[in-house]
Design brief:
single chain; eleven-stranded mixed β-sheet; 15 helices; 11 strands; 44% helix; alpha+beta; 462 residues
């Protein structure tokens, strides 16, 4: 009985259905290759999949005839189909959401693309396709699974995971699972080829694809694991880069015709570039300078105090040398949004909710989890941001504009009357009366013509 009530609530959830209709309708699914000849519709199956972690149900329970939902085979076929373009679907949804979020955020506020990887663990699995032996650098141990390389978009208030790749070991001897048997010309066959490539090469390709879909992006930020001169150069040719760097031999700088490593550059930091510790907001910034990063071009280097290692400062570089040190730090701080996104995907949004053995099925399950994250980000933004309350924000904007217009016109009217009263014998009195009447009529017309609607767009800081 409980399962029947839960399924009934899923099929009649207006908030899920309205979100799918607005951001992921049947037309969008068809453009991404999602098509079924008969049976349950793709949008209907998608609605149930999006609600699964919120209800406590599992797909293996959808085998009883008394449940008012399709059998579990219908969902498995949807997730494992090699011709469905999950990446294009994620970008289609992201485009619509970014367009909506862009109306709530000031244009001066930076939008960033974030690149990072996280562990996708399948420690208890043996027969999963392309299963590999990976290393978790945070816990300093190995695990079975994949590296989930992710690209996300953030405006500092909302984070949208736009694309991912499940990477496995490039060496066949380190793979534990069988290789997928897919046609290399299919959508999933092409993704299988990418799964064995280097993470840095895949990251550069992801940035290029993201910029073809997402126009509201100002910078790319990523961790020091991807901060190599060749990677920075390839990405900086498309969009400015902000990232931390490590003191390794592969990273060299040129300053005043001399070559330095990172710590050598810090020791020779000119006093003119050091920060005067007078501002509490910038107390952690040691200094900055413009140098040349070998094989990458001109960059601005910012040295920041490291509370854990006072003798080894944290270092950020930016290929946009017009940014100040404070701006570089603030923009890079938005990278933390993707860490929060990873935690939500694993703990609350069912990244490991559906266990499948095929590589195509894993891609489908992960895509569903990403779509759930986008849906929750949308409703989270509509709840915490007063600018999304229906009509309230735009009504306030219109009232402020109307008040400003009325004040200006009334002030003009008072000045004209005061000027005429100083010279009462002039024949302009009759003309002033006509002018005042015309101004009053103009104000009443403005008040009547100003309408409140959702089509209005107001740019403001969110």
């Amino acid at each position: 009985m409980w399962h029947k009530l839960t399924i009934f609530s899923i099929n009649n959830s207006n908030w899920i259905s309205s979100w799918i209709t607005r951001f992921c309708n049947s037309s969008d699914l068809a453009k991404c290759g999602f098509y079924k000849r008969s049976g349950a519709s793709v949008s209907g199956l998608l609605r149930v999949l999006l609600a699964l972690p919120l209800t406590g149900l599992n797909l293996y329970e959808f085998k009883k005839k008394e449940l008012p939902v399709p059998a579990r085979d219908a969902f498995y076929r949807l997730l494992q189909h090699p011709g469905y373009h999950w990446r294009r679907l994620l970008y289609t949804i992201s485009q619509k959401l970014i367009t909506y979020f862009d109306t709530l955020t000031d244009q001066q506020h930076p939008r960033v693309l974030i690149i990072d990887d996280s562990s996708y663990k399948r420690n208890r699995s043996k027969a999963v396709e392309y299963l590999g032996q990976q290393r978790d650098h945070n816990q300093n141990q190995y695990y079975r699974g994949f590296r989930m390389l992710t690209l996300a978009w953030s405006d500092g208030h909302s984070c949208l995971p736009c694309e991912f790749e499940l990477l496995t070991n490039s060496c066949p001897d380190k793979r534990l699972g069988p290789a997928p048997q897919l046609d290399g010309r299919s959508v999933m066959g092409r993704r299988v080829k990418v799964a064995t490539q280097k993470a840095t090469d895949v990251a550069v390709a992801m940035v290029g694809r993201a910029l073809s879909y997402i126009k509201a992006a100002d910078y790319v930020v990523f961790d020091s694991w991807f901060a190599f001169p060749t990677v920075i150069k390839k990405v900086a040719d498309k969009i400015p880069v902000i990232c931390p760097v490590k003191n390794i031999s592969a990273i060299k700088f040129r300053h005043n015709k001399r070559i330095y490593n990172l710590m050598g550059l810090y020791k020779h930091l000119p006093s003119t570039f050091k920060r005067q510790q007078t501002d509490d907001d910038d107390a952690d910034i040691i200094g900055w300078m413009n140098v040349e990063l070998l094989s990458a071009g001109s960059v601005r280097v910012v040295f920041i105090k490291n509370p854990n290692k006072p003798d080894s400062p944290m270092v950020l570089i930016s290929t946009d040398t017009s940014l100040s040190a404070k701006q570089i730090c603030r923009i890079y701080a938005q990278r933390w949004d993707i860490e929060v996104c990873f935690k939500a995907l694993k703990q609350h949004l069912g990244l490991y909710h559906m266990q499948m053995r095929s590589y195509a099925g894993l891609v489908g399950c992960t895509s569903i989890a990403f779509i759930r994250c986008m849906m929750i980000s949308y409703y989270h933004r509509t709840q915490i941001d007063e600018r999304t309350f229906p009509g309230v924000f735009y009504q306030c904007i219109m009232q402020l504009q109307l008040a400003a217009i009325e004040s200006c016109i009334k002030l003009l009217q008072i000045k004209i009357i005061a000027h005429v009263l100083q010279n009462p014998n002039r024949p302009i009195l009759a003309l002033v009366a006509d002018i005042s009447e015309t101004i009053d009529h103009f104000v009443s017309m403005i008040s009547a013509d100003l309408t409140i609607g959702e089509s209005s767009v107001a740019k403001c800081e969110s």
